[in-house]
Amino acid sequence: MSTRGAYAKGVAKREEILDAALAVVAEHGYRKASVREIADAAGLSPAGLLHYFGSKEELFVAILRARDDRDQQQYTAEDASAAFLAIMRHNASVPGLVQLYAQLAAEAGDPSHPAHAYFRERTDRIEAFTRAQVAADQEAGLLRADLDPAWVVRSLHALADGLQTAWMLDPSLDMAAEIEQFLVLLRPV
């Protein structure tokens, strides 16, 4: 077998593992999703699973990357606000992934943690895109022009993360509705 064929099979297997891992973590959460459970769902041994990811922490970072990729594909819209709200609504249906995100976000404050680079890159990418969208919305008269786009983006990011934490404690909280209320405050009077 050629190296290219082996590589393609490895990539396909990794995607298969991530599909299984997303389902396991979404259902059971970060703490209850063991490497053994994910390996079983993917039809592998725990050692076989870690062959593709190196460590449990790297597997969990890969799960978050896969979640981001899928959210981006599914919720891409011309209206960035509508896409953001749709993702927040979707998050309420995948509590385990919200738990994983919150847990790794806290742990990633340590620069030596495997998730540190992921969260830095993710934050930079999302905030750059969102700052550009806020500036365009201000130019179009959809958002108050007196607000600093960077402040708006940081505030939305902090609000979304904080709401996810609050929602984990009280799942009756409507995260998207709370964000919609904040967005109303940003509109011109």
Automatic annotation (TrEMBL):
Domain of life: Bacteria
Record domain HTH tetR-type: where: 11-71
Pfam families: TetR_N
DNA-binding region: 34-53
Keywords per UniProt: DNA-binding, Transcription, Transcription regulation
InterPro entries: Homeodomain-like_sf, HTH-type_TetR-like_transc_reg, HTH_TetR, Tet_transcr_reg_TetR-rel_C_sf
Full protein name: TetR/AcrR family transcriptional regulator
Source organism: Microbacterium aurugineum
